[in-house]
Amino acid sequence: MRAFLRAFVKRSGFGAVRRVAVVRDAEAGPAEQAFQSVCDTLSDSGLVRPVRAGQWTRGQVQTGAFILPDNSGSGMLETLLCRTLETDMERCIRAFFECAGVSPPSVRRDKQRARALLATKDEPHPSVGIAAKKGYWNLDHAAFGPLEAFLSGLGATEPPEPPAMGGADTATSLNRGRALE
Q: Which is it for strands 62-68 and 19-25: parallel, antiparallel or unpaired?
């Protein structure tokens, strides 16, 4: 990401850019560590560091960072996607791993849970983005509210206020499939 951003800000059309969003996984570490990494990369590229994950800066080029799954915990896109699973499906996936005698390592657990779900579909595909386009994930689930609120800042005339975390009122029916490409 560092090399890309350094090259990106030097491109001839960069003067027309008004917002730069970085969305990345926290992975196994704390979200704060991933956020600091993003901030360092933005600074190294001559861009303004956001104060908090999930919020936008002000200025000529506004920047923002969202650390998946929720700006606070460890995990990744698949962690967020697995939060949309219904209890019965979650129980079935857990039983599948127990029956197979497999205990996924904690760092890969959500990737494996997501792939187990996708394997049950008529047209399984290992890419969660393509699976989203096929409608395999409930993208209207409230778990996507904070990410959606952050991404809506890309088209705003002013940086949006920080999103309220959680709650059914944060979910709307925007086409979230594009965010997973």
A: parallel
